[in-house]
Design goal:
The protein is α/β, with parallel strands linked by helices. The chain is 45% helix and 16% strand. The chain folds into two domains: 176 residues, 3-Layer(aba) Sandwich (Rossmann fold); 139 residues, Orthogonal Bundle (N-(1-d-carboxylethyl)-l-norvaline Dehydrogenase, domain 2). It contains 13 helices and twelve strands. The strands form two sheets. The chain has an eight-stranded mixed sheet with strand order 5-2-1-6-7-8-11-12, sandwiched between helices. Strands 4-3-10-9 form a four-stranded mixed sheet. Helix 1 links the parallel strand 1 and strand 2. It is globular.
Length: 324
């Protein structure tokens, strides 16, 4: 049985590590700072609507601390802004023949991985999870923890993809091995474009007009670039019936990954890899993307300044947009 190395055991990575370990898989987690220290001392605490799991997973601070095996499978679950540096460390430590599975938001991570690793896989992640406290991750969906569809990148299937899908299925996730995984990944990307909206605007008031315009720009640039993606209705039918958020005592679901970056005052945020991708495609194909560019700038500035989530209002944003 292959060993799973979870590179970036935050919200998504931590939940996957905990569930795989719970179901008998060999797991090594890579974590940083206080989070690593807490896992090493107390185990990885996975809270869910069904109770608490404390997983005694092996934890290290970086790939250079691992005695690598030829059949190891690396699940890259770090935020997109950390991917390039993380993959460079991984290549130095494990060599270019290791299998890398990108279970991350955005569409740039797989391209970065494929430059270094021939066996690159892509995962469409629908996994509501939270990580705000060192050593603790929260899985909000039950009875299925989340959906993790997988395929080779950019297309295709092989025995390893099917093996990973089977391991996910055996560990409380839904997983389909897909030959056309990139089409599904771009459909998820259209949803992740509004992660910045979730992070920047007051959640009670919302910013529906900003969200609508941001998505419309993303749809336009994908069309201009000739990039195909799964239809909304098909995508929603797949995941709506699988992911069911339920209350977790003492751990309400406040916001997604970008919201959590601001809440933790992480100093960085994945917006360059999401809204920045829309801006890049727009510039390459002559499509204006002012909403995504302003979202990108504000999110990066707030992260660097240590601003809390929800610091902006829709009217303020639209006024700034009109001045540009």
């Amino acid at each position: 049985m292959a060993r799973f190395v979870i590179y970036g055991a935050g919200a998504v990575g931590g939940v996957i590590a905990g569930r795989l370990f719970e179901h008998g898989y060999d797991v090594v987690a890579i974590a940083r700072g206080a989070h690593r220290e807490a896992i090493a001392r107390d185990g990885l605490r996975v809270e869910s609507p069904d109770g608490v799991l404390v997983a005694a997973v092996a934890v290290v601070g970086g790939p250079e601390e691992i005695a690598w095996r030829a059949d190891d499978i690396v699940l890259a679950t770090m935020k997109g802004q950390d991917t390039a540096a993380a993959l460079e460390r991984l290549q130095d430590a494990a060599g270019p023949d290791i299998a890398v599975v990108c279970a991350q938001n955005g569409v740039e991570n797989e391209r970065l991985a494929l430059r270094r690793f021939a066996d690159t896989y892509s995962v469409v992640v629908q996994l509501p999870a939270t990580h705000l406290v060192p050593g603790v991750v929260v899985a909000h969906s039950t009875p299925i923890t989340g959906a993790l569809d997988i395929g080779r990148y950019p297309t295709g299937l092989d025995a390893r993809a099917r093996e990973i899908a089977a391991a996910f299925e055996a560990s409380g996730f839904a997983s389909v091995a897909r030959e056309d995984v990139s089409r599904w990944k771009y459909a998820k990307f259209l949803r992740n474009v509004n992660n910045a909206v979730d992070a920047l605007f007051d959640r009670a008031a919302g910013a529906p007009e900003v969200a609508r315009r941001a998505r419309a720009e993303a749809v336009s640039v994908l069309g201009a670039a000739g990039i195909d993606y799964v239809d909304d209705e098909i995508y929603e039918e797949r995941f709506r019936r699988l992911v069911t958020v339920r209350p977790v005592p003492g751990a309400p679901r406040h916001g997604g990954s970008s919201w959590q970056s601001l809440e933790r005052r992480a100093g960085v945020i994945e917006t360059d890899q999401l809204n920045g991708e829309v801006v890049l495609l727009g510039r390459l194909h002559g499509v204006p993307t002012p909403v995504n560019e302003l979202l990108r700038r504000l999110a990066v500035a707030d992260a660097r300044a240590g601003a809390p989530p929800g610091s902006h209002a829709q009217d303020e944003f639209l006024a700034l947009l009109a001045e540009r």
